[in-house]
What does this fold into?
Amino acid sequence: MLALFPGQGSQFVGMGKEVFENFKIAQRTFEEAEDSARIKIRKLCFDGSESDLRLTENTQPCLLTVSVALTRVLKETIGFQPSGVAGHSLGEYSALVAAGAFPFSKAVHWVRARGQSMQSAVPAGMGGMAAILNLTDTQVEELCSDATQLAKQEDSTAIVEPANYNAPGQVVIAGTTEALQAVRRVLELDQKHTNPKYPRCKAIDLPVSAPFHCSLMNPAALAMEQLFGEEQKQPIVLDCPYTPNRTAAIENQGAQVLKNLVQQVDHPVLWKQSMENWINQGETRALEIGPGKVLQGLAKRIAKEIGRNFEVLCLHDLASLKEMEKLK
It folds into this structure.
């Protein structure tokens, strides 16, 4: 069964607590994470404030820890071994740990630094993200181009770009505040036309602290490349195939793992394309490992669009773990 791992936005206070309280392997996972990240991951996950957990530099190691703890519990209880792995944005690190690409302790250190680098790449209030609904991928790309041109009339540094190709009719965009405002102006002007270019389009601002997965994140990508350093020259062996967000290709070799992780930071997440590739290869079932059910919802839309059957189960608490045990 394919294993899927969620990214930022799926977190909530209390995540992972049940599993931590009932499995020693989960407890050891949280302890390992705290030793590596040097932050109180248990407090942030179990009873911290939503605002603290939402900070990118905290969210990323916390989500990684919960997903890896759940994966280890599942492996210990039913011997789960994924046929392949994929992770959405930050979730790609969880997927690669599950695929044996690198140790969990190293991944925790990396994502803590990744979150700090992404947060500091663009000053607070200078950028953001929005979900664009009911348009094709091509239409979203044209909308970003139109809005960027409009915004550049007032600010030459303005830019907005596709950031997450999540599912048919759902693409997240990221950019400077001015360019995101220009998106709404373009849509308002467009709706006045007899034959609008972007009919039925909805733009929903997202509660994020920075414009992730666009060219504005280039400083963060450079920071990750520097962080990986000599590691990029070391061979990486995968226990199962994975799909990098950067290419959406199903990879069996680990030669490009770290390069893909660097480029993932300032390039769009090709999630829809990744899922299409797995489904077209013959996968009919997947397990979403981590808080929330975001990827399950996206998978339904993707499978429906291409006319294929694809079921996603979710593992995030004791109740769902018991359901997994029935599959043993």
Remarks:
- The domain at 127-208 is CATH 3.30.70.250 (Alpha-Beta Plaits).
- The chain has 14 helices and nine strands.
- The mean pLDDT is 95.
